[in-house]
């Protein structure tokens, strides 16, 4: 059972890692779940078993990004920041890095 859960978690991570750059570059609306499954060489059904729909996948990816940024910020605050201005500047730096990855199509409305 532990092996199955580990496999599912690894697959979930792979799906997020593959999908988020696609969402950022091409836009959420343009990226299809079957393209994600083809890119990862897994069945579309497998992707839908892990994520019920594209919105669930996007939310998981955004939550992972937030957690990664929180972790980076904590590490920076503990090891490098000299004052609160350093921390605020680092927050903006992280945001600008993410903005550099995100194309305008990412913000296109999904219906």
Structure description:
With 111 residues, the protein is mostly helical. The chain is 76% helix and 0% strand. Helix 1 packs across helix 4, helix 2 crosses helix 3 and helix 4 packs antiparallel against helix 5. The radius of gyration is 17 Å and the shape is flat. The mean pLDDT is 92.
SSE diagram, text form:
Elements: H1 2-26, H2 33-40, H3 44-50, H4 54-79, H5 84-101
Task: Tell me the total number of β-strands.
Answer: 0
Low-confidence stretches: none
- What portion of residues belong to β-strands? under 5%
Fraction of residues in helix? over 70%
Q: Compute the number of helices.
A: 5
Structural class: mainly alpha
Q: Give the SSE string.
A: HHHHH
Task: Give me the Rg, rounded.
Answer: 17 Å
Which whole number gives the mean pLDDT? 92
Amino-to-carboxy terminus distance: 38 Å
Main beta-sheet annotation: none
**What characteristic shape results from the CA principal axes?**
flat
Structure characteristics:
111 residues; mainly alpha
Quick rundown:
The chain is mainly alpha-helical. Helices cover 76% and strands 0% of the residues. The N and C termini lie far apart (38 Å).
């Amino acid at each position: 059972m532990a092996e199955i859960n580990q496999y599912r978690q690894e697959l979930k991570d792979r799906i997020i890692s593959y999908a988020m750059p696609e969402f950022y570059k091409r836009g959420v609306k343009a990226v299809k779940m079957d393209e994600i499954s083809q890119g990862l060489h897994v069945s579309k059904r497998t992707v839908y078993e892990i994520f019920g729909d594209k919105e669930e996948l996007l939310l998981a990816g955004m939550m992972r990004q937030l957690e990664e940024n929180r972790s980076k910020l904590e590490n920076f605050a503990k090891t490098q920041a000299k004052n609160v201005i350093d921390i605020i500047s680092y927050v903006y730096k992280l945001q600008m890095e993410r903005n550099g990855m995100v194309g305008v199509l990412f913000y296109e409305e999904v219906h």
